Amino acid sequence: MNHIRERIDNATERGKFVKEHIAFRDDKTIDHILCRLCGVIIYGWADVEAKTETKLDGQKVVTIRQQPMKFDNYAQLQFELNDGSLYEPPACASCAENAKFSEDDFEELMGIELYAWELTLQRAGRSDEHVKGLLKPMEDREIVKHLGMKQER
Ligand SMILES: [Zn+2]
């Protein structure tokens, strides 16, 4: 049994968190990202004022275009992993500030992280073998401690 597969399956079956928290467009760019804890949108395409021109007749023309951006509620959680490194997944500000996690929650969070990677790599057109190889280094990664909300430096 593939250990990564087992972790992903267990996490998606438990289903407390949002397993498909990244949505892609047909051109494979990211359409939006949801908070993986509560499902609100935290990153997506929004109108930005690209250019303001004043024409000869004095009329103002404002060009609006869309671009992907972090929304105001975008924040990051911070966890310590068993290899001593930090894991900082995005979440909404409210969850990042208030969420509490059990050990089962830790395992599910890692499982859906592996799942998100798997989907992202598959959508990028990687072969199954290639995806397995790229996920392999994450196989034994575990969250050991919730450090809180990532503070901007
Ligand atoms: Zn949230």
Tell me what the structure shows.
The chain is of the alpha+beta class. 31% of the residues lie in helices and 35% in strands. It is built from 4 helices and 8 strands; from the N terminus they run H-E-E-E-E-E-E-E-H-H-H-E. The protein has helices at residues 3-14, 93-98, 103-123, 128-135, and strands at residues 22-24, 30-34, 41-54, 60-70, 74-81, 86-87, 90-92, 143-149. The strands form 2 sheets. Strands 1-2-3-4 form a 4-stranded antiparallel β-sheet, with no helix packed on it. Strands 5, 6, 7 and 8 form a 4-stranded antiparallel β-sheet that branches. The longest helix is centred in the last third of the chain and has 21 residues, at 103-123. Zinc ion (ZN) binds next to strand 7 and helix 2.
Number of self-contained structural domains: 1
Which whole number gives the mean pLDDT? Answer: 93
Q: Biggest sheet: strands side by side, in what order?
A: 1-2-3-4
**Proportion of beta-strand residues:** 25-35%
Number of helices: 4
Ligand types = zinc ion
As a whole number of angstroms, the C-alpha radius of gyration is 19 Å
Number of strands: 8
Shape: globular
Instruction: Quote the distance from N terminus to C terminus.
Output: 42 Å
Order of helices and strands: HEEEEEEEHHHE
Helix content: 25-40%
Q: What would you call the structural class?
A: alpha+beta
Q: Ranges with pLDDT <50 over ≥5 residues?
A: none
Q: Report the sheet with the most strands, covering strand number, pairing sense and barrel closure.
A: 4 strands, antiparallel
